[in-house]
Amino acid sequence: MIDIKTPEEIKTMREGGRILSLVLFKLLQNIKPGVSELEIDRLAEELILKNGAKPGFKKVKGYKNSICVSTNGVVVHGVPTSYKFREGDIVGIDCGVFYKGFHTDMAETILVGAEVAPPLRGSPRRETAKFLETGKRALNEAIKMAKVGNRVGHISKTIQSIVEGEGYSVVRSLVGHGVGKKLHEEPEVPGFLVGPIEKTPKLRPGMTIAIEAIYNMGKSDVAYANKDGWTIKTADGSVSGLFERTIVIAKEGPVILTN
Asked: Which helix (H) or strand (E) holds 158?
C-alpha cells in the first residue's frame, strides 16, 4: 500500500531533507586524498545529531553506520572501512536522516581530486567525468517525469534511456523506493522499465519517493563482497555510480525535499 503524506507530514520531511542535504554536501567537501571512509562516517553522525536529527541508516536492523560508501567498484550498501581515499577514486555517499518520525534519503557520487585540473579529452578522467555527468543528468530528467498523472514507468524509462544511451548499464537488482515513516516503502521505483508503462503505479499528490540512478560503467551484474553481508560490488570490477533524491509528487510538479 502506498502511503500518501499530509501537508504537515510533507513539511516535516522537507525539514529533514534540508538537514540531510546540508550534511551530505558537507561530507562531499571533506572527501579528499588521505581521508578515510570511517572518518566521513563519523563526521556524518556528528553533523546529523548536531542538526537535531538521527542517522536514518542506523535504524536498519543490523546496520551500524550512518552512511554507505561506494568507492570505485562498490555499487551500494558499502560499509565504511579504514580505506583512505586517493586522487582519481570515484566515491558515492548514500546517507539518510530520520527527523520527527520521517526518513529522507539521498546520494551523490564524485571524483576525488576533480578540482585539481580539468580532465583532458580522451583521458580516463574525461571518461569518468562523462560517466558521472550521465548519472546526474539521468536523475534530473527522471525527477521531471515525477508529476501527477504520470506513472513510475515514466521515471524508469527516462533513467534507462539516458544511461544506456551513453553505453552504460542500469543495475537491475537494485531500485528506488517510496520513503517516509519507513526508509523503504512502496512503490518500488526501478531505473529500468519492466513491461508496459500503463502497468506501473500511478503517481499521485502526496506520494514521497526516493528516485535513484544506480548504474555501472561495465555490465549490470553485481555481487556481494567483503563478506560483511552488506557491500555490493560490480561483478566485472567496473566502476559504479549512484545519484538519489527524495521528492514529493505535488500538484504543481515534483518537489525535491533533499536539495
From this structure: helix 152-165
Separation CA 187–CA 209 (nearest Å): 8
96 neighbors 55 (Cβ within 8 angstroms): yes
Cα separation, 201 vs 94, in Å, equals 25
The grid coordinates listed for 128 are 569518468
CB-based contact 94:232 (threshold 8 Å): no
CA dihedral sign, ordered 202, 147, 178, 220: positive
Closest by Cα among 135, 137, 84, 104 to 23 = 104
Q: Which domains does the chain have, with CATH numbers?
A: 7-256 (3.90.230.10)
Q: Is the pTM of this model over 0.85?
A: yes
pLDDT in tens, the chain (259 residues): 999 999 999 999 999 999 999 999 999 999 999 999 999 999 999 999 999 999 999 999 999 999 999 999 999 999 999 999 999 999 999 999 999 999 999 999 999 986 544 544 455 678 999 999 999 999 999 999 999 999 999 999 999 999 999 999 999 999 999 999 999 999 999 999 989 999 999 999 999 999 999 999 999 999 998 889 999 999 999 999 999 999 999 999 999 999 8
